[in-house]
Amino acid sequence: MVRLLDIGLERLKNMILDMAKHSENTVFTAIEAYKQGKDMTEQIFGWSEELRILQDEVSELVVELIARYQPVASDLRFLKSCMEIAYGFSRFGRYAYDISQVLKMFGDLSMCDKRAIDEAGQQAKEMIRLSIKAFTERDANLARKLREMDDVVDRIYRDFVRRAIQSQGADLRCVVSGILILRYLERIADHATYIGESVIYIVSGERSSRK
């Protein structure tokens, strides 16, 4: 027999999956726009706002389901985690908007070496895909891989900053814009890792320590 709570949980899951798809597209578009030198700030800001509104809707539904049905155990863990996961997807949108603003702030950056950003961007995109897959399939093993992948983005960011400090005569616009974008990608990777930790909590009740 289907509980009324189950209907609400299914609706919540679908809202989270909508946010996942939307946030993934927003981040991917921001990274590609930067690499191609295209100003898509206005479009990405609109998508970021939509994600923020969806996050509020998820929070409202979670509070409603808790108040109505007083869930316990795995149901309660799922509800609490959905709020955290929705926050993560909303932050993806915000950092995508921050990335789009870099091009607007610095102008033409076609002369810059974008290899570090391309490498970190590819890793961040894979982490977003994996965090969504881990949530969809409630797969704790997939979720645990995210922390290891996060270390790669951290390393790329630190190496870029180290080279920037040691370089002489480098184009300042390339250095500063590169550090900003890599910092945003590093934060996106962090939130993908947090989503993975929420999946582990849903499945096992285990809470991971954060860096």
Describe the protein's topology.
Blueprint lengths: L3 H33 L4 H29 L3 H34 L8 H23 L2 H27 L5 H33 L7
Helix pairs in contact: 1-2, 1-3, 1-4, 2-3, 3-6, 4-5, 4-6, 5-6
How would you describe this protein?
- The protein is mostly helical and 211 residues long.
- The protein contains six helices and no strands.
- The chain has helices spanning 4-36, 41-69, 73-106, 115-137, 140-166, 172-204.
- Helix 1 (4-36) runs parallel beside helix 3 (73-106) and helix 2 (41-69) runs antiparallel to helix 3.
Helix segment tally: 6
Show unreliable segments: none
Termini separation = 43 Å
Strand percentage lies at under 5%
Q: Nearest-angstrom radius of gyration?
A: 19 Å
Mean pLDDT level: 94
**What would you call the shape?**
elongated
Q: Outline the biggest β-sheet.
A: none
What is the ordering of alpha helices and beta strands?
HHHHHH
- How many runs of DSSP E, i.e. beta strands? 0
The computed structural class is mainly alpha
Work out the helicity level.
over 70%
Summarize the structure.
By secondary structure, the chain is mainly α. It has six helices and no strands.
Feature tags:
211 residues, mainly alpha
